[in-house]
Amino acid sequence: MSSLSLLSLLIWLPILAAFGILALGPQRAGMARLFALASSLVSLVLSIPLWMNFDKTTAAMQFVEKFNWIPTLNINYHLGVDGIAMPLIVLTTFITVLTILSAWKVIQKNVHQFMAAFLMLEAMMIGVFCAQDAMLFYIFFEAMLIPMFLIIGVWGGPNRVYATIKFFIYTFFGSVFMLIALIYLYMKGGTFNIAEMAAIPLSLTEQIWLFFAFFLAFAVKIPMFPVHTWLPDAHVEAPTAGSVILAAIMLKIGGYGFLRFSLPITPDASSELGWLVITLSLIAIVYIGLIAMVQKDMKKLIAYSSISHMGFVTLGIFIAFMLIAKGGDTHMALEGAMAQMVSHGFISAALFLCVGVLYDRMHTRLIRDYGGVINTMPLFGAFFVFFAMSNAGLPGTSGFVGEFMVILSAFQANFWFAFLAAITLIFGAAYSLWMVKRVVFGEVKSEAVSQLTDITKRETFILAVLAIAVLALGLYPEPLIDVMRVSVSHLIELISISKV
Amino acid sequence: MSMNTLLIIALSPLAGAIIAGFLGRKIGKVGSHVVTIASVAVSCGLSIGLLLAFINGEASAFNQNIYTWMVTGDVSLNVGFMIDSLTLVMMSVVTFVSLMVHIYTIGYMQDDPGYQRFFAYISLFTFAMLMLVMSNNFLQLFFGWEAVGLVSYLLIGFWFKKESAIFANMKAFLVNRVGDFGFLLGIAAVAMSFGTLDYAEVFAQLPQFADKTISIFPGAEWSLMTFIAICLFIGAMGKSAQAPLHVWLPDSMEGPTPISALIHAATMVTAGIFMVSRMSPIFEMSDTALSFVMLVGAFTAFFMGLIGIVQTDIKRVIAYSTLSQLGYMTVALGVSAYSAAIFHLMTHAFFKALLFLGAGSVIIAMHHKQDMSEMGGLKKYMPMTFITMWIGTLALTGMPGFSGFFSKDIIIEATHASTRWGSGVAYVAVLLGVFITALYSFRLIYLTFHGKERMDNHTKDHLKESPWVVTLPLILLAIPSVIIGWITIEPMLFGEFLKDAIHVNHANDVVAHIGEHEFHGAASFALHGLTQLPFFLALAGFALATYVYLKKISVAENAKKTFRPIYNILQNKYGFDDFNQKYIAGGLVALGNMLWKWSDSKLIDGLIVNGSAKVVNAFSKAIRPLQSGYIYHYAFVTAAAVIFFIGRYVL
């Protein structure tokens, strides 16, 4: 296999597999599952050479593929990865395997369509992280909505129609502005190549307009306060596997977008408007943390916790500008934001899977319906406590790494940023552990709880794999930081130079 | 000293914990306790061996990284060990007490269904605590710090069906997180000012930072060192339970007694004391911070001791005593007598672990009843527990010759000698504290072992001494409770032993001052103690307790009535819990609900998001009738438009 086409394989194999599974028809559900699992495993295996052969010493794009696509508009099928995109691709292939396993038994209706939608989703997400052409990026970015729309809309909960439309319109609303921005940049520079876009000279006014256009697209995706209200609804209605992918990967695309588009293309505007993003991030951390505390539905609680945690990503990204102005150490802020994204991918996935495990058995997500689960599900209880602790940023788990780095960097930018960000230490522990106390510990609350059965081997496997990932990243994050170091340096160089 | 030895010391309990935790069901109860006890025994033996080698000059201090956790920008974050006299003392105390508690647990938890899990937890705790004390940098310190907090959480909530236990463990974790909030900001300040988190590198740069300031509020410049020291100390206030972050410790007594001894008396709660001593070069640069430390300690030492007098739960009395004693250590830190703090930490670890384990032995005999009003006269049923508890009490109350005397007396004298702002108040507090300590300690002894037997007949019939696995640790802890002071006071306080590990500015060095002017060997120090005020205060406390609780119990009842308001204040623990519960926890939940209902649901989602959808909906509804589908409607509109435009054109 030539490494030249590795990225294309990662994108197109799941698509082909998806069509193959659709062709199986509704009768052969077992085959559809196996086929989907096989495809996701192949993708995971393919991402190993991506990691192993990745050259950590260069910031240039690697595994590049470039073909003319629409020559009249100078649009290319142009793929490549750097140290920022590569870990997110590996995260995607890794999480996809686990989600397909998690949906093994739960999904009984139209299994072939469900699995096909998942593989399509995987392909689109990998495409987003690989695309070096802005139009290609945009297409993946939008196309991704379709399988997700179907996953929530077809296999979702009772209020799924409201949630899907809200999810769709919200995201679409944001990305339309991004399209306008891309077209504007094309008119100006005659290119859709993302790297070349960064070199287009722009006045501050132009940058500010473009910044807001990108900002809307990515802020909705992450999501940032105050455009976050689609997320809790989408999570509550989505099937477990959908929530997992949504939280673990799709939210990261917003953070990735900031790093790939907003920062290099509009550095002066990003610097100028950094205060706005920082303010919104800090609101996300504190305000959303408080809201998470009072949720009655476990999925909503974790959804709000996700928003709060993603606040660290945007905080890390945008304090970078203050640190550049101050001559401080910018690496830690950006690398912290990245570490937070990867870690949140593991932890939110695990927590949604845990809720899924309970939901499959009791068909309720309300905290008050539970209590004393550990009496009947000791193994599950241990995992749940572990992941709640990771969510609370316990050192030694991955949840600590990104938060620690961002808080340290924030301190350098401004004491009060660090002060407000560090409040998550208290709030994060409060909402996570209070949920654990009410759900896991205590006397058996009800007849239903007393009849729970502990997690199966398949469920144990999924949670154990995630637990190992959380611990590995928490105890030894250097390999992850090492991969992105040079790319982050390159990004810092790019954004340090004013375009005005 | 070699890296391999140190790794064995640290990792051996971890291995024990993993085996007992994951294979507990396979290897059974005996297998689990054999494995964990052996693993901790290895650590303990090697630690004490290293300590002795160090004392004899065969080993020297050690500082080496194990692996690089992360390099980010210019900062390199490592995991590594720094071993010096201070570390060795801590390692030896931790592993020794842990070993005793492991053995004791065989007896205490024998019928508990979570037997293996318990052993896994306490071994894991030992590992975490070792990582904390052996660290050579702030990052790993914080790792250990939070890891012991995690195990403490798991162990307080060990009986997870008990509502009070699972409330207490969450409370403990959250209150500690408040302290960690300050601690983390302190670490951030260190990292961002010094560009490193390595102890040695930070300490080496300190002189250049003496006059640096930090601007927290615009216009106000604060000393950076004061800021860092106070932030770090806030962390210590959480872990070492200093007011107002002490509220979790009494509740932590909901956990099984062995961990009350190990974690909530002897080791984990002293982590804050250890940390401040380790950071002595930083603290020495700020008199303001040290005054703050001292006053917090003095408040805790005095007022928490008072609560101990009115408690009836045997474990809670000892818990408040622990708070008070931690206050003593904190006062010692505040007057720059770090070595005295560590000395008291060590002696306290032995006699307080002894008292807790003794109380546990009583609780076994009483079938898990802890209320002293149902005890009394136990001395004839359990002589070994009785004698060892008496020894522990004599040590705690600082009777001359016992270990607690040396360490407590030196703290009182050091406070007396200190000229730091506020040391007068602290001196009064620690002095009166001696009286209070004697009062609640002997009250406990009399109510438990002496006087009338107040238990029901069923309990009385089954009273018996605990098995040897319980009494052996009591004896092994009673020995150092008596002698450790004699042996170690001279090298630890006035010798060279801790000189390289703890930095004290010459002008602040009250311990050295005492060493030069008042100390002439342990024996004469003990003799001298017989003529001093603290001894008379302890005697007064002893006499009062003897009179009231041994001779005339009605006095206590009358006093309760006469001083009802004071009694109520103490019974309510000064209202800290109510305040936190009502205003802080309650307030945050109310705020969260308000934000959720009004801001998130009504304003953002209701008004803006769904509101805009509704506007679009209403608008389209309004114009929808235009598309009726009837040809003649459209034809009419077309014709009307044509006429309109022609009309306009013509006119």
Topology:
The complex is a heterodimer of chains A (500) and B (651).
Chain A: H1 6-24, H2 29-52, E1 62-70, E2 75-81, H3 85-102, H4 111-130, H5 134-143, H6 145-155, H7 160-189, H8 194-197, H9 204-221, H10 230-237, H11 240-265, H12 267-272, H13 274-293, H14 298-326, H15 331-362, H16 373-376, H17 378-391, H18 398-413, H19 415-422, H20 424-439, H21 447-450, H22 457-475, H23 478-496
Antiparallel strand pairs in A: 1-2
Helix pairs in contact in A: 1-2, 1-4, 2-3, 2-4, 3-4, 3-11, 3-15, 4-5, 4-6, 4-11, 5-7, 6-7, 7-9, 7-10, 9-11, 10-14, 11-14, 11-15, 13-14, 13-20, 14-15, 14-18, 14-20, 15-17, 15-18, 15-22, 15-23, 17-20, 17-22, 18-19, 18-22
Chain B: H1 3-55, E1 62-72, E2 75-83, H2 85-108, H3 115-134, H4 138-156, H5 163-194, H6 199-205, E3 213-215, E4 221-223, H7 224-239, H8 248-251, H9 257-266, H10 271-278, H11 280-283, H12 287-310, H13 314-334, H14 338-365, H15 383-396, H16 403-417, H17 423-449, H18 457-461, H19 468-494, H20 510-517, H21 522-529, H22 533-551, H23 554-562, H24 564-571, H25 576-623, H26 631-650
Antiparallel strand pairs in B: 1-2, 3-4
Helix pairs in contact in B: 1-2, 1-3, 2-3, 2-9, 2-14, 2-19, 3-4, 4-5, 5-7, 7-10, 7-12, 9-14, 10-14, 12-13, 12-17, 13-14, 13-16, 13-17, 14-15, 14-16, 14-19, 15-17, 15-19, 16-17, 16-19, 16-20, 17-22
